């Protein structure tokens, strides 16, 4: 379940004895305002979260479940994220201005935007 600035998983799983168990929350992380989309680079175990209200992308270390640095400022209204694991590049769709922001996954810095 997503709140305005905290990401928290909410789902149930079924064990071998067919009883339903709800996994315990590992961490609730503070990210930017209104997180709406995320993607994971499985090679680097890095999570990228689009925060639509403050036009940023938060970066999370998937191994430690800690937010890395400050959110990355992108163009207006990020609402989609896609990771290219081969190039370690993150593409962010920005709804409000119709652009795509590009983030270098190695440096976690904004590198370009295009329409």
Explain briefly what this protein structure is:
With 115 residues, this protein is an all-beta fold.
The residue-averaged pLDDT reads 88
What is the number of domains?
1
How much of the polypeptide forms β-strand, as a percent range?
over 45%
Distance between the termini: 32 Å
- Assign the CATH topology: Thrombin, subunit H
Q: What level of helicity do the residues show? A: under 10%
Main beta-sheet annotation: 5 strands, antiparallel
User: Which structural class should the secondary elements be placed in?
Assistant: mainly beta
Shape: globular
| Architecture (CATH level 2) name | Beta Barrel
Number of H- or I-type helical stretches: 0
β-strand number: 13
Overview of the structural elements:
The chain has 115 residues and is mostly beta strands. The protein has one domain: Thrombin, subunit H, CATH 2.40.10.500. It contains no helices and 13 strands. It has strands spanning 6-7, 13-14, 20-21, 29-30, 35-41, 46-51, 56-61, 66-67, 72-73, 78-84, 89-94, 99-104, 109-114. Strands 5, 6, 7, 8 and 9 form a five-stranded antiparallel beta sheet that branches. A four-stranded antiparallel beta sheet has the order 10-11-12-13, with no helix packed on it. A two-stranded antiparallel ribbon has the order 1-4. A hairpin with a 4-residue loop joins β7 and β8 (66-67). The termini are far apart. The model has no long low-confidence stretch (mean pLDDT 88).
